[in-house]
Amino acid sequence: MGFVQLYPILLSLLFALFSLSVLAQTTSNITLGTSLTAGEDDSFRASPSGEFAFGFKQIEEDGFLLATWFHSISEETIVWSANGQNLAPKGSKVELTSNGWFQLVDPNGKQIWNASSSRTGLVAYATMLDSGNFVLRGQNSQNLWQSFEQPTDTILPGQVLNQPARLVARYLPTNYSRGRFQLNLTDDGNLELCKTFFPTDLVNSAYWETNTSGTGFSLIFNLSGSIILRADNGTIISPILSNILYSTKNFYQRAVLDYDGVFRHYIYPKNSGSSIGSWSTFSIAPPNICLNIREEMGSGACGFNSYCKFNGTNKSCQCPNGYSFIDPSDVMKGCKRDFVSQSCDQTSRETELFDFHEIPNMDWPFSDYEYFHLVFEDWCKQECLADCFCSAVIFRDGECWKKRQPLSNGRLDPSLGGKALIKIRKDNATLILEDCNRDNDRSKLIIIGSTLLSGSVFFNLVLLVATCLVAYRCGRSNPKGDQAVQLTSTMNLRSFTYEELRKGTKGFTEELGRGAFSVVYKGFISDTPGNLIAVKKLNMVKGSEKEFEAEVSAIGRTHHRNLVQLLGFCNEGEDRLLVYEFMSRGTLAKFLFKDQRPTWHQRVDITIGIAKGLLYLHEECSTQIIHCDIKPQNILLDDSNTAKISDFGLAKLLKIDQTVTTTAIRGTKGYVAAEWFKNKPITMKVDVYSFGVLLLEVICCRKNFDVNVEDEDRIVLIDWAYDCFHHRRLDLLVEDDEEAQTNMKQMEEYVKIGIWCIQEDPSARPTMKQVVQMLEGFMDVSNPPYLSSFTS
């Protein structure tokens, strides 16, 4: 066949390929009269390369965000959104009307958002570009509107912000409404990070700035991966964040004003594949937001009565002892007292009911109302105890500052020095005060009654006999009821009926977990905190009665943010049930050993939380408690991933003057200290050993004993961790964990702490107070010795 004969065929083939190419390009566009619908499979349009997409992302059960996002990576990170303040319900549409108007409407046709522009009526089509820019274009393909000119909290390589411009942080990681922080390129060219007078957009104060007033013109994220501030004459005034470059050819990049107020430059390796890649923090501003924000009006970097910690990359907000978050899902709302504040009644003796919780290197600037110098710490404490307005004192080098409510600008950092002394009620002081008030009320009633009836000796005698008969009959009819009333009054616990719990759990149908003597069910009681509860139903076999008594007596009088709260119990006939607060995220084991490991920051917070919970049990309770069974299955997580110790069924109580005990072996294989097997006295150091094993598991995100590993030297984690430390190859412990590798210094410190905790000689192990101080960086961690046998 000659060329002349082939020519028509080739021409037809080329025309077909060209038509397919045009079709492929046009199908990625939104053309006149077309739309995308929230909740449908075809609810987005990808860019030509597939790296970005525009469309609907589901945020809530019936809440959709119109957004652009990284489409070729597993996280599909959102970079721009239209309706963060007003999520669209399922069935909503984003449409380009036949008259060229681009808008988002709900299922009833009511407008939620539109691309406001004087030129949008001329729009011919909308398209998603490979740069991450979503644009509306006219008939001649000129840009009439673009997302790059209407940024939310993110900028991308190739994006330019001309003055005046701003980024607004989102409210929470998954709440895209306006948050509390802004990045502003002002009219005079200064680049500022600002806190706002939330919920308004008015700027409160700048906590970081470039000091480029009069010269700055544009903020540019160039294709070399550099973020710079440029003058109107084209010269570069100042590099923002780091001036070290990562090529956009090899890395996806974004710069975000995160919800916590930190401006972060993130990178993501393009050659990592969609399953194992992750965003890494490359550089940040400011270098320490906790120290940078000092507001005369406002709460500071965290909420009122809380304090801010910064680990070099991430900010965390925490409540001091005796306080808890008003809303754990939104820590910026601050912390509330968990105790009754001190009375200002001069006849009250409440001074004796208060003590101080000490936090080194802590401060709350701008909350002080009195100042003293050349004084001692004890004098400073006594001044606060005698002052009902005093909530805390800061003591530093002979200087004393009294602090009032609400405490603001809280920060914890080694550079601060000194200490914060927070005034809190002693254990059970609230209950004692309430009991005293009730006793006083009863005494008054008795006096009044006796006075009224004193005129009739015979009537008093009849009343006394009748009272005794009623009490006798009540005692015989409900012997366990007295026990329940006694437990309720002494421990401030609620006594539930079996029928109440049966109905609340729908007949004990939804199982959460089970142990040797018990099964835990999910339930709902409308008048309990949060409504949801976890009901532990004990199987009445030998040993379960002791477990019930141990658990109630161990945890009934405790209250700490890192302990699961016991709300009440049922002790009715042969039924023994314990009622706890419901922990939405389940066990640490489930969170830790799943495919998607927790972040390094989450791991740090979890280990510190567990350590603080154990410290409370060991040293801060009125009755010291050895838990005896610390393991991932007995650590529960709430909806903000706060770790809480649970399952006190094996707990051992220590009297005030007792430091050791003897008991049968308790605990779980792999977490049990050597002294259990050697007939040695049992101390609180058995919990320290178990914590050391748990700490290494959390760091490495793997179980202590794993027969599935290929290298038999790695089967027992504590042995392998020590070998890696001894041979200076800690990188092997986290060889597939990029985030841990970027925190190797802290990771090494935590491994050393874990090895100290698992020393076979209990006296060589640190106390939990020392563990907390080491974990938080307030105590140096020396190199641990060789792991040797425990000898007498």
From TrEMBL:
Signal peptide: 1-24
UniProt-annotated binding residues for ATP: 537
Catalytic activity as recorded in UniProt: L-threonyl-[protein] + ATP = O-phospho-L-threonyl-[protein] + ADP + H(+); L-seryl-[protein] + ATP = O-phospho-L-seryl-[protein] + ADP + H(+)
The keyword Aminoacyl-tRNA synthetase belongs to this UniProt entry's keyword annotation: no
GO MF terms, alphabetically ordered: ATP binding; carbohydrate binding; protein serine/threonine kinase activity
Lipid bilayer topology: Single-pass type I membrane protein
SMART domains: B_lectin, S_TKc
Source species of the chain: Acacia crassicarpa
One GO CC term, this protein: membrane
Family the entry assigns: Belongs to the protein kinase superfamily. Ser/Thr protein kinase family.
Lineage, broadest ranks: Eukaryota, Viridiplantae, Streptophyta, Embryophyta, Tracheophyta
Gene3D superfamilies: Bulb-type lectin domain, Phosphorylase Kinase, domain 1, Transferase(Phosphotransferase) domain 1
Documented EC number(s): 2.7.11.1
Compartments (UniProt record): Membrane
Keyword line: ATP-binding, Disulfide bond, EGF-like domain, Glycoprotein, Kinase, Lectin, Membrane, Nucleotide-binding, Receptor, Serine/threonine-protein kinase, Signal, Transferase, Transmembrane, Transmembrane helix
Main location: membrane
Protein name: Receptor-like serine/threonine-protein kinase
Membrane-spanning ranges: 445-472
InterPro entries according to UniProt: Bulb-type_lectin_dom, Bulb-type_lectin_dom_sf, G-type_lectin_kinases/EP1-like, Kinase-like_dom_sf, Prot_kinase_dom, Protein_kinase_ATP_BS, Ser/Thr_kinase_AS, SRK-like_kinase
Entry keyword Transcription: no
Pfam family membership, one: B_lectin
Uppermost EC category: transferase
Limits of the Bulb-type lectin domain: 27-149
Record-annotated Protein kinase domain positions: 506-779
